Amino acid sequence: MAADERVEPRDWMPDDYRATLVRQMAQHAHSEIIGMQPEANWITRAPSLRRKAILMAKVQDEAGHGLYLYSATETLGVSRAELLDKLHSGRQRYSSIFNYPTLTWADVGAIGWLVDGAAITNQVPLCRCSYGPYARAMVRVCKEESFHQRQGYELLLALSRGTEAQHAMAQDAVDRWWWPSLMMFGPPDAESSHSDRSMAWKIKRHSNDELRQRFVDACVPQAESLGLTLPDPELAWNEERGHYDFGPIDWQEFREILRGNGPCNDQRISQRRRAHEQGAWVREAAAAYAAKHGAEGREPGGPRTAEPHTEEQSTGGRKPAAHGEASA
To answer: Distance between CA 143 and CA 251 in Å, rounded?
Structure first.
């Protein structure tokens, strides 16, 4: 870590480092999966075929992000079934932002601009995370999240420049999503129980407050371009600091949502459990198919055979690992 090199799955690592990674990566994966629900709520009600296609592609991307991150977490020796069981039983969390309802079509734009924008601010530094599989997964995730943010911004711009009612709808969505988006970065540094250790291990590269400030500084000029107002009367440029000052965040609201008392906590986890139960037959069929074709591909008493492939395909374009090292 002192040399800024990456830790790979087969490298020795402290138990606390592994546990911290499992906690953070699992929460990230859960957030991608739960985060499909608020926007999926509007797929059948999108105002045009173009908007529907864009939203469907975005929700599909979020499912893919969850799968990348579950796969990366599995390299730490924990099974996906165990992770999902902890999510469904409330023993692991997902981002508090997804416990708010999407009341209007403009919420889809606000989520894209603000929520995905906050995610990008938080996640781009994770591309330099000290744990190799997490860092590599984040490269693709961040590219796709950048598209999601642009899509949300464009949607809000269209509404803001539309009719008076459409502009009001866009402003209302921003009013409701602004403060929860600031909460996405986690509690203040002085109250964060994990931030210092994660930064020492270079899992995180920046503190919660530093990332939150970056996000605010980026959003103010964007809001002006949109013709929308951020709902903070204390928002003002501070020449001495070289940053925007902003008002106090309601951390009591944040804590209540973490305790399960948000507007949609019960709905989100109930729907997730139901989807998992209804998808059991798909998982069983896939496992049976893999077992059948795996058996067919083996010589009697020998290892499974596989189609020939190139060295580049097997290593993802990286130099093959030496014997005993992880290729991740």
So the answer is: 31
pTM here is: 0.84
CB of 29 within 8 A of CB of 64? no
How far apart (Å, rounded) are the C-alpha atoms in residues 254 and 171?
A: 22
List the alpha helices (DSSP H) in the chain.
15-34, 36-40, 49-74, 80-88, 106-110, 116-123, 132-160, 164-183, 195-200, 208-226, 251-258, 265-278, 280-296, 311-315
238 is written with which tokens? 């501070």
Residue 301 per-residue DSSP state: T
**Other CB atoms within 10 Å distance of the CB of residue 194:** 15
Q: Residue range 96-125: average pLDDT?
A: 95
178 vs 181: CA distance, rounded Å: 5
Overall residue count recorded for the chain in this entry = 328
Contact of 123 with 145, CB cutoff 8 Å: yes
* Band (2; pLDDT cuts 50, 70, 90): confident
Count of other CB atoms within 10 angstroms of residue 126: 21
Among 139-148, 288-297, 310-319, which is the least confidently predicted range?
310-319
How far, in Å, are 103, 149, 151, 165, 226 from residue 154 at the CA level? 19, 9, 5, 17, 9
CA–CA separation, 99 vs 34, rounded Å?
A: 9
Whether the Cβ atoms of residue 87 and residue 30 lie closer than 8 Å to each other? yes
Mean pLDDT of 142-158: 93
Q: What is residue 196's predicted lDDT score, i.e. its pLDDT?
A: 77
Average pLDDT over residues 99-104: 96
Q: Is the CB of residue 95 less than 8 Å from the CB of residue 264?
A: no
7 phi, psi to nearest 5 deg: -90, 135
